[in-house]
Amino acid sequence: MLRGILPIMIWMRLVAVAILFAGIGLGWWVYSAEIGGTVSFRLGLDLSGGTQLVYRANLSAIPESDVADSMAALRDTIERRVNLFGVAEPIVQTEKSGVFAESHEERLIVELPGVTDTEEAIRLLGETPVLEFRMLKEGADASLELTLENIPTLFESAILTGRHLKGAQLQFSQGVGALSEPVVVINFDSAGKQIFADVTRENVGRVFGIFLDGVPISTPVIREAIPDGSAVISGSFTPESAKELARDLNFGALPVPIELIGTETVSGTLGGEAVARGIEAGLWGIGFVALFMIFWYRVPGLLAVFALMLYVVAVLALFKLIPVTLTAAGIAAFVLSVGMAVDANVLIFERMKEERRAGKNGTEAIRNGFSRAWLSIRDSNISSIITAVILFWFGTSLVKGFALVFGLGVIMSMLTAITVSRTFLIALGTDSKSRFSRWLFNSGFSKS
Q1: pLDDT tens for residues 370-417?
Q2: Is there a single domain that holds both residue 276 and residue 166?
């Protein structure tokens, strides 16, 4: 019997040593990557300092079936626009209004780390134009002077917008007997090209206005079908203004209008203080949990602390690799998940104690304790994961950060409790029946 057990025990001890060395190596990588700045933690706005801008999208002219695509295009356009100004790791995301909100609303949230000047942040995004192509309504008087008040009554809703734009460039029109005039030539993507070709073919002789930020730039008459998917914006341009317009269109013609509805600025000092307090809270929390586990569960508790350290290292590595944007709420979720990680070990150790009282030896008590505690651990963690998924799906960006960190922590805690703690306990070998051995593997104030 000993010959059958010994190889298994040696194998489990080798696995345990390998897990320890892997944890040490992973921990060193997390530390050195942070110190060296190669793979740093991504900190949210409340920790790094910066400006958050919240915009409401005006989707009144967008069909319901195109809302998702329009918001995705808006997000990509704003992100491309912000990247031009060298803002480090900007976060641009869309957000729907809550399920129980009185009205459906789509929002765009822009976080600019390191930018604490709100007016500057608004300016960076405010220069982005909204490009629209609108047809003059049947029977409308094309000779009327266009104003912001009468444009909605004279022109139909936008047929083409900036989301159909492929690119824009400065050119000079070649007029016979006249000086060259700077114009902006725009090209549509495949979908826009087809729409433009159909519209120009079916509406020859009608006025097709080009609007930028709601202001008419040009109101040409369609002379013939234009199948090549290109259009010319002409007007009172100087070469410099035409060049700026082409640049702005290339780097951010908005597919839908947006309205600024909220701003928030966090200084770098407050962010650094929040990080320091979050780390301090995490260290105190892990320290007290470790002391309790060692005091109450002795040797199994000590092994659980080693497993807990590996859990912390693995989760921190995940935060770097995914990467997860850490906020103050996320740090709170991480500290909370540490308690969840220990909870599974507590269930296992209590089941082990019951097995030993039933007369089982150490190895059998460990195996039975893990197998019989598994159902409770599984159900508890699944309910926590469901909660995290619901919070992430329906919550705001702040709640989503909490939910993501909490969900990852719960999954990792379940894995470390079932695999790492079990491997350490079996590798230790606990079949001794001496009174001292039983005391080491008991819990609380039990004597046997």
Answers
A1: 888 888 888 888 999 999 999 888 876 668 888 888 999 889 888 887
A2: no
448 in a structural domain: no
Measured distance CA(149)–CA(132) in Å, rounded: 17
| Pair (28, 56) in one structural domain | no
Looking at the fold, whether 244 and 271 belong to one and the same domain comes out as no
What tokens were used for 409?
């922590």
Does the pTM surpass 0.70? The reply is no
Q: What is the rounded CA–CA span in Å between residue 23 and residue 292?
A: 23
Instruction: Write down the pLDDT at residue 93.
Output: 85
* Weakest-pLDDT range from 5-9, 22-26, 325-329, 405-409: 5-9
pLDDT interval class at 2 (50, 70, 90):
very low
Name the amino acid, one letter, at 447.
K
Do 135 and 101 share a structural domain? no
Question: Between 67 and 85, whose confidence is greater?
Answer: 67
Domain extent at residue 57: 48-121
3-class SS letters over the chain: CHHHHHHHHHHHHHHHHHHHHHHHHHHHHHHHHHHHCCCCCEECHHHHCEEEEEEEECCCCCCHHHHHHHHHHHHHHHHHHHHCCCCCCCEEEEEECCCCCCCCCEEEEEEEECCCCHHHHHHHHHCCCEEEEEEECCCCCCCCCCCCCCHHHHECCCCEEHHHEEEEEEEEECCCCCCCEEEEEEEECHHHHHHHHHHHHHCCCCEEEEEECCEEEECCECCCCCCCCEEEECCCCCHHHHHHHHHHHHCCCECCCEEEEEEEEECHHHHHHHHHHHHHHHHHHHHHHHHHHHHHHHHHHHHHHHHHHHHHHHHHHHHHHCCCEECHHHHHHHHHHHHHHHHHHHHHHHHHHHHHHCCCCHHHHHHHHHHHHHHHHHHHHHHHHHHHHHHHHHCCHHHHHHHHHHHHHHHHHHHHHHHHHHHHHHHHCCCCCCHHHHHHCCCCCCCC
